[in-house]
Amino acid sequence: MPQTIGVVGLGYVGLTLTAALADKGYVVHGADVSTHVLDTLAQGRSHIFEPGVEDIFAAHVGSRIHVAPDLPRDTVDVAVISVSTPVDENTRRPNLANLAAAARNVAATCKAGTLVVVRSTVPVGTSRRVVLPELEAAWGAGNVRLVMAPERTIQGQALRELVELPQVVGGLDDASLQAGLEFFGGLANTVHPVSSLEAAELTKLSNNCHTDLIYSFGNEIALIAEQHGLDPLEVIRAANVDYPRPDLSKPGYVGGGCLSKDPYIMLDSAGDYTPFLVGQARALNEHLPKHVASTVVKLLSELRGETRGLRLAVLGWAYKGWPPTDDMRGTPIATMMPIFSAAGITVTGHDPMVTPEVIRQYGGDPISLDKAFTDSDAVLVINDHPDYRALSVEDVLGDARPSLIFDSWRILDADAVRAAGIRYAGLGLVAA
User: What predicted TM-score, i.e. pTM, was given to this entire model?
Assistant: First the structure.
């Protein structure tokens, strides 16, 4: 059973895996190119919010957990590559430079025959096409053990899911596969072998693109309901009640580091086939924040006549509110801000998880939660953080009241809002 593990790339995927392995008793060496990340982790603090991670680092850094720019030479039994694979903002093509560099780093610092695990999300065929040649060039074709084992956790529950979710493992050959199954068997309750590196790569993309797709259908219903003055939640609840087929998803924003990126990696994997669904689902989900921003501007124009100079309080700047996160990747506010700016609207911001500095970076002026309802012409709720779910409308309203509350997740008391003389709207629900 391997005991010393190397993790290359200490972003969300590598960070949580490092913590989970250390919690299981492994010695873990984490490597990252960012001095800020290394300095923060070396102090037992986490640069990313994820429940339980900082406690594990605080308890084990310097003993079971070690961080440095590179892996220690000829030390680890397993080297896990968990670097980012970003998608170009213009071409939407995946950039695999980080992956190739990580593979070269592993080849240079680890012994031939070290088990190498690709954990990054990649186009189908990448582990064989990009990682394998780097290892073979350094170690020789017969000395490579390589597996692909995708990360599939949800933010806010990663440490639990790393143990409870089945770990899918595909190997270069039988020896690689057996080594990979043995390694992940020391972490997870269940391991599930697949026939190849490529099958494991497509498994990850299939999970995330399916999630993007089912959420997009809820958004499609909302946009159609809006055209008819219907309540999309009423329609979705009626469609789901005691119906034996899969439930329809509520409408909502779809962001984050994976769902905003992985559909493009799936498209890149399609070869000569042009997918019908994946790209359209992503386009719809990316359209939703723009549609909401335009709708807010339109409603304010109807209510106030002129939008220039109005103040809009935006609650929830992280891409989601539950489980709570400070992750801004794929946040709706990024695509909303240009629309609000063009309308001359001043945007203020509040988020229990996001710092005032980050809100300013995205163009907002930080505001307290109470002032959001007493010092604004409108309030836009973007995520469903528990603090927002717990709000009592009667308690937060003062004499000066907003003209509009756009409640994206429908978590506020709509009747109380309307009773206060405020226009209430939500995704797909804009009728007066």
Answer: 0.94
